[in-house]
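Exercise 7. Given the components listed, write out the predicted structure of the assembled complex. Treat all entries as one system.
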Amino acid sequence: MTGPTAVPALSGTQRAILAAYTDLIEELGSDDVSYRVIARRAGIAERTVFRNYPTRVDLLLATAAWIEATLFAREESHSIFDIPLAIRDAMQRYDARPELAHVVAETAMRGVNGAAPSPGRAQLERLLDAEVPSLDAAQHRAVIAALSHLDSVGTWVTFRREFGMDQRDIADAAGWAAEAVLDSIRDRVAP
Amino acid sequence: MEEPVDTPTAILASAAVLLRERAFDDISYRALADEVGISERTIYRQYPTRAHLLAALSNWIEQTCFPLPPFVTVSDFCAAVHERFRAFDASPAYAYVGARASAISPTLDTEPAYITRAIEAMLDVAAPTLNRRDRRRVAASLRYFSSAMFWARLRTGFDLDAGEICDAFDRAVGTMLARLPDATWAER
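Answer.
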């Protein structure tokens, strides 16, 4: 995700549910949290939780989007060439909240309607179109796809799990890879 | 005649059958028990949480349906990844299970995937004098772009098919490898 992401407007009750669930995920893990426990933590009736989020998948999708837009939100980048900085910062945020990072990563990979694997894509498109408008369709798509992939919690999960990297190494490697992607368009900036 | 299988494998094989008609989240332990013909309790004993089931199912699918072609050179690596992305496209429900399992908080002390070690070995041969930090950066990047996650993100978020995903993969890998100094390559 990059910059403010469009999140559907939430009611106060919905915000309370998502915040309560987020707290409970950090305390108990995402598997063991019942609607009853969420309702108690949010101070509302269990059926109110069901009315807002009829299934666990509905609840998870909403929670992941909310976490991305609040706890994992980042400063808006003003240039596509600033994206590596935003990626480094994001990796540090994920590292501070590992349970939530895993939940967001898993939710994005469900392959169901409503999962948002690339929430920052629109902003990347805007920046790239403004700064480097001369790319052909395949080049354009490849740059956006690569940066979207790197600018996501999947990077943090994979680098940590497969390479045992700590927070500094993850931020370094993710930023490095994003700079590599940008190498292909560095000399193509519109005057 | 089919070989007899042990209970954990029978559970995973049945889960894979059910996955053809419904999403992983919609496979209850009850339905799975009925499909295998064992008690629900036996499944809980093998897979105490759905995360355990997901991780084991993903490993089983990986070995059974998406075996990684061996590779030594960079071009063989790219060809192997292309083959996988095409296999993912042919069985998306299975590939999403792999992408999702690789994102969850590990249930056990998981070893790095075989492809991770294979990429590191490939770089040792291809760029023997590369410094340690650059080697890690490039290995991690190649690993991440060859993952089921990359395929899933581009399919769901960008609506791309395997051919387009392979093209985006090749371009990304090209930019990473172009960052390595020429002198570190064994031959090019």
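Discussion: Chain B touches chain A through 49 residues (CB under 8 Å). The longest helix of chain B spans residues 74-90.
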